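QUALITY CONTROL LOG
STEP: pairwise intake check
CHECKER ROLE: data steward
CRITERIA: each record must contain a sequence immediately followed by its structure tokens, with no blank fields

ENTRY 1 OF 2
RESULT FIELD BELOW
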Amino acid sequence: MKTASAALKVGLTTLLIVVLSAVAYRFVAKGVRGQEGPVVWALFRDATGLVDKSRVQIAGLIIGEIAERRLQGTYARVSIRMRPDVELWSNAVIYKKSSSLLGEYFIEIDPGTPQSPDPLSGQMVKNSLLKSGDQVINVVEAVTTGDILYQVNETLPIVRDILRDVQRLTQGPVQDIAREVKDSVAQNSDAIATLLKHVDGIAQDVRSITSGQSAKDVQISLANVREVTEGLRDLVGKGSSEVDSTGAKLRQNLDKLSSAVESLNHALGNVDHITGDIRKGKGTVGRLLVDDAIVNNVEQITADASELVRGFSQLQTIVGLRSEYYIRSNDFKNAIEVRLQARPDKYYQIELIDDPRMTRTFSRSVTTTDDPSKPLTTTTDLVQITRAFKISFQFAKRLFLDPKWFILTLRYGIKESTGGIGFDVDLFKERLTFKVDTFDFRTNIWPRLRIYSTVQFYRNMYVLAGVDDVINERPPGGQGSFGRDFYVGGQIMFNDEDLKSILAVGGSAIGAAR
């Protein structure tokens, strides 16, 4: 009889939860859909992650949902039902975006503009409004991490070959040509310097010979013409021998220079041949400079990596400290909450709780005996009640029925170390919140139902009050088995910006104290 009573209670509780969930779903579905508007469609190469009723939004606001998906040729045709007050132009763009690391996708739409520049002429042209049944031509699909890794694996061998060819080129013919040109220039520079020195000496000798003489020295000069002529003859003879010697050296240097020029011409011919092959797209370097596919792959990889990193940068962390005083138990309950919010309509809630209701552990031992005067088996049940920290980990989905005045949040997961579900109703821009939690189906006769509300009275500070264990009317029967109890408390919430300010002020205060 006791087993049947427990089964009946569990069944009634499950039926109540199903009815409440159905009513909430019908209310939410009605609020989200509203009046049906025009239906437009677009073609996707990959519709993975897009399901019926998935949200469609503009600038982060939900303006429609996916109405139908079907195959059209090798593409997926996705139909979108819009709100009647939303206008889409012929230059609208549909983006398939990833909403989280769990593989969920949604559709973001750029509605376009009444006018846009013509890509060919640059003049402004008028765009037409899309009607029900029209196609959105421009579609940009999100790239997965697997696609990025595949493109990186395709590009890395090409880059490796390019680096190997460049290294081989710089260590081979180009280095030899540079070395030969350097040696030839050094040798020819020495020869030319020696030649110029001899020519300068000859010029000085001619200047000393042809320098003007005074009128008084003319007769002496005529008388000594023979002597001067003989001296000049001797001087010219010496100069001729020096010129011959210099000419031989110059001829040798010119031969060396001619050989160096031939080597340089041969090297330039090789370089011209190599540049011709590169211009035709031959070899790894030629493919890099001529093939546009490699450049497009690199640009695509950069864009995909930027979009992936942008998704991580939008993660927001919210930390809360909560303390509650239970009036009937005359004890305090403290909790630390961490909320990881990847986007405005979804977050993960983690709590570490010190609960005065404690934790109950049940164990059973069975003892057998051969003594005929005693029962064959003896069963002993042991219930241990300890005060320990409890953990909550819940996934929350927010529905912005009216972003300014009414927001509904559905939660499910682990609540205070037991399975549980709940929902929140935020009013007046989240200044007033009503919360309902159902969990702990084993401790008392009925599940533990908690209803409370929070009011924001100054920035990040809240006051709260509520009723815990509403259904169980049994008075306290021992540690860990309390019935209904009332409580009041306070809460402080910090987001990323608040934590940065606190750390900056705290760090400055600690530095000043030191």
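ENTRY 2 OF 2
RESULT FIELD BELOW
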Amino acid sequence: MARSLSDAIAFVLLALGLGGGCSEPVSKTHLDDVPVGWPDRWVADEQWLGEGLADASADAIVGLDGGKDAYVMEDVRGYDGGVDGGEDSGVDGGRDGGGDAGGGRTEGSLPAPPPRVTRRGRSGLLLRGTVLAPTRVIREGEVLVVGPMIRCVAESCAAIPEAAEATVVETNGVISPGLVDAHNHATYNFLPEWRPGRLFGSRYDWRSDPAYRAHVRPESDGGTRAELVCPATKWAELRSIVHGTTTIQGQSPRQSCVDRLARNADHYHGLPVRSTTSFATTISGPCEGTPGSATASPMNDAWRQARIMEWTMGRVTRLAVHLAEGVMGGGSEATDVLREYACYRGRARHSIDLLVDSMGRAYGTAVFIHAVGLSRAELSEAHALGAYFVWSPSSNLALYGRTVDIAHLLEIGAVVALGPDWTVSGEPDMLSEMRFAYAYGQMQGIAGLTPERIWKMATIDGARVVDLDRSIGTLEVGKRADIAVFGRLASDPYRAVLESRASDVRLVLIDGLGYYGDLVLEEATAVNGWCEDFDACGVPKFLCVANTPGNPSRAEETYEAIRMQLYRILQDGYPGGMAYGRGDELEEIVRCP
């Protein structure tokens, strides 16, 4: 069944062409044209459509004909193209759905033979398999890791002296850079999805919804307390790692307890940058909530001057803002997301130009998250002036019934990264978000949304957006050995990556050290001797949590210890506060059928 009523409504809108791209509705006469691999569970239910659009923007529903012939696909997350009904399979209504084998336009993937350690060496690690190099696919290639760095990427690394001393792993899979999650709210990611049963005009609408506030109370009540921030952020990073993600832009508070697992793009990433505060982000900047309003806070001017000073001094090289998250135009200034761009372009009262200085020179620092309500002209102008974009399609469609005009962003050559947003309204991990993005592209007929393009959004383009591409994002000599190995094979290896689940992730290296992978690879690759056995939907894995490199704060915490802290928050609340009684709602780091 659909994840929620809002899912069904969102994808009615999507099928009717209101999310950008194809404008022809999917109806009874078009069922034969549905891409191979989509679920065949379609239902006609105009009541869903009518109920869900009751509070939607008028602009969002222009062109609907009452939905009499509209068919709602039960779950766009039902696309997966997979063949084995593994983790997250939708046979029982899981998030990512089952699906017919080989969905979409290219051949689907199959599980690869198991990996093998064929030689134990004295130093270094030599991975063999299908290598996703920056400009080509090496079908039978090698990646040599020495210390934290990549030393060789080639058909053969035999000419490199260190290769003779390295441990050799026949991965039998696809070797990729570790994925980069360019936008997530890490501290919320122990919470399950929220099912509001309707669409919203903008983020200001759902943020004030009493049901939403009640849903996220276990997080919001915790605030910046260490008893919330430490386990919640670690939990989000563990979920990332087991799904092949090595860097997350998680907006976690600057608390040293999170300086340990996945890299955090905001801080604690352990990589050289051009400044001490290279990446900065804000959730409620001066142009959000009261864009151009006569009652805008005078503090905006101080905020504006501080930001300009940071950019001109080179201290902040990326500033990410939540921009135009929704579809509402008109109404009060305080809830009109369509005015936010004008404010951040310096065209409104108490505004700031994120894109150019007073001489018209582009800063090249702006990162626009969501940008759902931007017009093609605004997207083109922002791109021309050096802006970067982060796309969160699953969350956007669940909340607003549409997403940014991704087809246009691809056409103009914008740098677009991918991020699931959070578990409250988005997909639970990057691999799921990649599958969602591909399914959306297939349904909308967006030719540019190929598996390779989506993989680039999740690797090199993600690294560019968070300004860490000099160190991560590609398999290149001299870059850090942040590597994910995926245990699926296909004629299109990029398709094999996005069809992978945690059970298919064979090995995850950060700085050349193994944090997760198949149990048979633990002895040869693990970061330390404290790693734990982990069951990924029936596949034995190792997972390294305790005493991994980083700040000594809470270093001894194990996976189960972190899990129990979050369970107790959901069940018993915080000292002196109310008990929630919601322990059984804990969002596990892996979902199984």
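INTAKE CHECK: passed for both entries
DESCRIPTIVE NOTE, ENTRY 2: The first strand starts at residue 42 and ends at 43.
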